[in-house]
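forwarding from the other thread:

> can someone predict this with pyridoxal-5'-phosphate?

sure thing
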Amino acid sequence: MVDVAKNLREVLDNLPKGVRLVAVSKFHPKEYIEAAYNAGQRIFGESHEQELAKKVTELPDDIEWHFIGHLQTNKVKYIAPYISMIEAVDSLKLLKEINKQAAKHDRVIKVLLELHIAEEETKYGLTLDACRHLLDDGQWHDLQNVHICGLMMMASNVDDQEQIRREMTLAADFFDEVKAKYFADDPEFKERSWGMSHDYKIAVQCRSTLVRVGTSIFGPRVY
Ligand SMILES: *Cc1c(COP(=O)(O)O)cnc(C)c1O
């Protein structure tokens, strides 16, 4: 087994004050999560509903689980009872479904809006214009059981550090725009979730508040 506690400490040592770590534990067994938990880590990220459901029953109650992957609307009901944050919301439809399921459990679920900035072809994430449109539309104001707490993005998976920096800076500037226009009165709208194993050191220079790191802590995933 990899030395999870040592790796965790190394990552944490690289994070300035005010940046929190989501330890991405997808595809890793519960023993790895326990090792990080025993070293003090409390926020874990998963991206598959069934895997998460199993881990939730086996692991301590004070873990804050973040759902970081693409979430299908028909899966929301399974995670609504316990999820702390859903990081990758990219449609009003999904937002409404989270609201509906959260209401059933008398909860308010924190969410982030996922931006699509990377050059890669992916179906997921909102373009900046689509995100503006969703917020201008205003229906989200009526959703009492979801709380939009910030933005999330993945930079392009490239070696070019300057490109990664440009994309993350664009996201950070867009955060400022959205914050000023729609969330100026909401102190809870404060999260900028970017940075993974290969680029979290760049992310913290680009105003990230949440980094999502898996491989650097737990080693390579076995799919
Ligand atoms: C898997 C995953 C991560 C972690 O990736 P690593 O390269 O292992 O650090 C971060 N964010 C998202 C959305 C992921 O799916």
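The beta strands are 20-24, 43-46, 64-67, 85-89, 109-115, 146-153, 191-193, 210-213. thats all i got for now
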